[in-house]
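Researcher: Here's a chain I'd like modeled. Treat it as a single chain, no partners, no ligands.
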Amino acid sequence: MIFCVEDDDAIRELMIYTLQSTGLEARGFIDGEGFFQALQDERPRLVMLDIMLPGGDGIAILKKLRAQPETCDIPVIMATAKGTEYDKVIGLDLGADDYLAKPFGMMEMVSRIRAVLRRTEGKQPVRFLCVGELELNPQTYTVLVKGERTPLTLKEYKLLFTLMEHPGRVYTRDQLLEMVWGMDYAGETRTVDVHIGTLRMKLDKCGDYIETVRGVGYRLKEEI
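Model: Modeled as a single isolated chain. Structure tokens:
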């Protein structure tokens, strides 16, 4: 089943008709409310999601999908207005599998859907890490703070990933040094402290999620 979230009645009906005529089951929704209600009863193979929707944009819907364990791995193709580079980049950063610029041809849509299904079905699901207002996408190596992308160095990213993978777990400085920098790294544990400091600064208020455990090391808060 393909779920099509599109507020334009004519476009939505054409999408459903085309998908059904090419052998794919499809259902249409005018907004996020009806879409999420349907998700409680049925899990789609893929979601066609328009960026501009009444009562909440497609980006917000995508974020909600990726934040919930039961929906985080559902393939999503975003439909964006032609020339909106920003929407395309944000959608892909948040975990969209592909995008189509409007106006798009119906057969192109079918081709893109089949291509995404070939790539994603049977794959191990990607687990997005979310703690409070902090989100990490292991597929694209991106970090979002309150929905805004935050550039990190590779070592900062690996450090944050390690802490977010097991919230509440305390890591010693030596453990972090080995896990992030490698067993052969000849540096000192002070290196970890320096990187934790810059990481906290880059994460802004979400930097407070990283707690210092005196005399031991660091951990990420389990509950925010």
